[in-house]
Amino acid sequence: MSATRYTYLGPVGTFTEAALHTLPEAATRELVPLASVQAALDAVRAGEAAGAFVPIENSVEGAVTATADELATGAPLMIYREVLLPISFALLVRPGTELADVKRVTSHPVAQPQVRRWLGANLPDAVWEAAASNADGARLVQEGQSDGAFAGEFAAPLYGLEPLVKDIADAQNATTRFVLVGRPGRVASPTGADKTSMVVWLGDNHPGALLELLQEFAVRGVNLMRIESRPTGHGLGNYCFSIDCEGHLTERRVGETLMGLRRICPQIRFLGSYPRADERGSTPRQPGTSDEDFDRAADWLARCLDGRGEG
Ligand SMILES: O=C(O)C(=O)Cc1ccccc1
Which of 123, 146, 151, 215 qualifies as a cystine partner to 106, CB 3.0-4.6 A? Predict the structure, then answer.
């Protein structure tokens, strides 16, 4: 086991690698590119690496399903950090290629919806093929298996390619979220601007089941940041919910929410509390939801037992 090794979605030149380098500790780690999210996570599960850095969510396409599903149902892992990276693509080609020569293009599937309109307008007849990552697409172009790769401009020199078109992004401000994942361990102390992730399974299918789940957050003033349904794989209509909320597990309102979910749901997986990467502060606290409010209520309850519950 290497305590200093981080795996990531490779090969070299992915956006994932660029995002990883924004973490200060990356400078002192052995960074190992692997061919898939699964391989990166499995290396952590096997104890061959201390962390895996992988994409999890995109502001245009939504969940990176390979990551979301692995975290929900694979052997347990936890999220320790997140990084947000604005993404714009360059069309990377072999030197000398002109736009008219580009018949086949490639990218990671999550990138395709971000360049779809550009493709329709500029290369309507080109065939798009999936690559294991955007940098792997660049490698496919280098090897002649494709003519153009949508990837970071920074990947071009790594694969002997040139950016034929730069700044391709159907949606302005497209952002991808990446996470550093490790084996389950101690949750880092709260920073004051934290996020908590979990996966929750609903029990029997009855009217209001999802509402009951959401109420656990609402009554404690916990703001949801993301909720996404994912099929459980056990037949049509069977879903679990991948949820991010504001706050840290050590906050009473968050802890009590998770306990509430634990009581009403057949299964819940805590995925970590970690510093949120966006600079926006938490939404204003609802009255009656601070740690002090919870403590005062607990004190009052104890006093009730002694007949001192008034006031
Ligand atoms: O990191 C990469 O290059 C990837 O292939 C994952 C990805 C896909 C789409 C946008 C950002 C990152």
Answer: 146
ipTM rounded to 2 decimals: 0.96
**Residue whose CA lies nearest to ligand 1 atom number 9:** 111
CA of 14 to the centre of ligand 1 (A): 6
CA dihedral of residues 20, 22, 25, 27 (deg, nearest 10): 90
**Within 6 Å (CB) of ligand 1, which residues are found?**
9, 14-16, 55, 58, 87, 108, 110-111, 133-135, 176
For the chain, domains (ranges, CATH) are 1-87+173-185 (3.40.190.10), 89-168 (3.40.190.10), 186-311 (3.30.70.260)
User: For residues 294 and 251, what is the distance between their CA atoms, to the nearest angstrom?
Assistant: 10
Kindly report whether the peptide bond that precedes residue 11 is cis, defined as omega within 30 degrees of 0: yes
The Cα 278–Cα 36 span in angstroms is: 26
